[in-house]
C-alpha cells in the first residue's frame, strides 16, 4: 500500500502502524508524488489525506490515481468531515472515507476491505453521505467555496479580489451565484447557511 500525508510525523507514524499487517511500498508527501508512486509501484490500496499543502490536493490526486489503467483502491484518511469533503472524495473515486481518530484496528480492517473492492465508510460518514443524497447541498465550485471562506473571515470584496488575484467584478459575479445557490440575500446569511450545511468550516484566527 501507499501512504499519503504531508505531515512527516503522521506519514511515518501511519506507515509504521500499518507495516505490522501490510507491505507499505512508499510514503508520499504531495499529491503529485502520490500519483507518480501509484503509477510506478502499483499498490493495492492508497491511504490518502485530503489537505496536502502546495500542489494538488487529495481529491485531485485521488481522481488522477483512479484514472490510471489499473488503479488501486483509495481510502481517504483525514481530519476533514464536512459534507462537501465527503462528496468530493467519493465523486473522485475514493473507495473509503475515514477520520484520523479511527482506532488502529478499524483502519487496518478498512484497508483489508478496500483491497477486496468493498466500500469503507465510518458510520458517521455513511450517515452524512446518505443525508446528502437525500437532500443534496448546492454544488458550489471550488472558487465559490474559497470566496465563502474569505467572507467568513470578514474580508471585503476588494480584499477577497486581492487575496485570490481576481478582479472585484469577478468577486461580485461569484457572490451573485453563491447567493442564488444558497437561497440567501446577504453575506452574513451566505456564511451562516454554508456553515450549517457544512460547505465551509469556521476557523479561529
Question: What would you say this structure looks like, in words?
Answer:
The chain is an alpha/beta fold. It has helices at 8-18, 31-41, 58-66, 83-92, 104-115, 123-134, 142-152, 157-164, 168-182, 187-196; strands spanning 2-4, 26-28, 45-48, 73-78, 96-99, 120-121. It has a six-stranded parallel β-sheet with strand order 2-1-3-4-5-6, sandwiched between helices. The radius of gyration is 18 Å and the shape is elongated. The termini are far apart.
Q: Averaged pLDDT, please?
A: 87
Helical content band: 40-55%
The shape, in one word, is: elongated
Unreliable stretches covering 5 or more consecutive residues: none
**Strand-residue proportion:** 5-15%
Sheet with the most strands, sense and barrel status: 6 strands, parallel
Give the topology string: H per helix, E per strand: EHEHEHEHEHEHHHHH
Please compute the radius of gyration using only Cα atoms.
18 Å
Report strand order across the widest sheet: 2-1-3-4-5-6
| End-to-end Cα distance | 37 Å
Q: Write down how many β-strands occur, each being a DSSP E stretch of 2 or more residues.
A: 6
Quickly count the helices. 10
User: Strand pairing plus helix content: what structural class?
Assistant: alpha/beta
Amino acid at each position: 500500500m501507499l501512504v499519503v500525508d504531508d505531515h512527516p510525523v503522521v506519514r511515518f507514524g501511519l506507515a509504521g502502524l500499518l507495516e505490522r499487517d501490510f507491505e507499505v511500498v512508499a510514503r508520499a508527501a504531495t499529491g503529485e508524488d502520490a500519483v507518480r508512486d501509484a503509477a510506478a509501484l502499483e499498490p493495492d490500496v492508497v491511504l490518502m489525506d485530503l489537505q496536502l499543502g502546495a500542489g494538488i490536493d487529495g481529491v485531485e490526486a485521488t481522481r488522477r490515481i483512479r484514472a490510471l489503467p489499473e488503479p488501486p483502491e483509495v481510502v481517504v484518511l483525514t481530519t476533514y468531515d464536512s459534507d462537501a469533503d465527503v462528496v468530493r472524495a467519493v465523486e473522485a473515486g475514493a473507495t473509503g472515507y475515514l477520520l484520523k481518530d479511527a482506532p488502529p484496528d478499524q483502519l487496518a480492517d478498512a484497508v483489508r476491505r478496500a483491497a477486496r473492492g468493498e466500500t469503507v465508510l465510518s458510520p458517521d460518514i455513511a450517515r452524512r453521505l446518505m443525508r446528502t443524497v437525500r437532500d443534496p447541498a448546492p454544488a458550489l465550485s471550488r472558487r465559490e467555496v474559497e470566496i465563502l471562506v474569505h467572507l467568513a473571515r470578514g474580508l471585503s470584496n476588494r480584499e477577497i479580489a486581492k487575496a485570490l488575484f481576481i478582479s472585484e467584478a469577478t468577486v461580485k459575479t461569484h457572490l451573485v451565484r453563491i447567493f442564488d445557490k444558497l437561497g440567501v440575500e446577504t453575506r452574513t446569511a451566505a456564511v451562516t447557511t454554508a456553515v450549517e450545511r457544512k460547505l465551509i468550516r469556521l476557523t479561529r484566527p
